[in-house]
Amino acid sequence: MKLLHLDSSVLGPHSVSRQVSAAIVERLRQATPSLDIVYRDLTQSPLAHLSGSHLAAAQGAPAPAELGPDLAASKAALDEFLAADIVVIGAPMYNFTIPSQLKAWIDRILVAGKTFSYGANGPQGLAGGKRVIFAISRGGYYGAGSPAASLEHLESYLRGVFGFMGIHHPEFISADGIQVGPEHREKSLASALEAATTLHAA
Question: Which is nearest to 167 in space by CA: 118, 110, 121, 122?
Fold first, then answer.
């Protein structure tokens, strides 16, 4: 069984989402010692944002030689995702949505004919069957009914885009309110880490 672990926070060891995603992976590794784990740090080895040349190449246009490394990086990211049985993603909220590094990765895996297709009945996800677990962190509180609920474009976006690929039941472990104050951060992180260590492992 293969697990793909991704982190997208720019805060390194100070990152809450990184701590929680690592705890999730460790929980799964302990439950399945033979787990084949691939790790990708989207800040240390970022994928470039899409360019017009890249999109043209995806449509079948001749690719300039200098685009070769970028196309190879796209293929590697997509192949890693397709090969994974489990995907664990650390995703902090930056300015009400996902980090641009994570968006660049999603742009490389959201590929027609690979992870979704269009048919007579509309779009169909092709990447179902994977277990996807998100470790998300948010500086404030964005739950339903909260004053900032309309600004929540992290979890809602991730649910939408992965659902589009056929992954309709992603799991979320959340650490919220981490910028409200030290006590809120400590309590929220402890709660998220506990959820990670008691995660259903099968």
Answer: 110
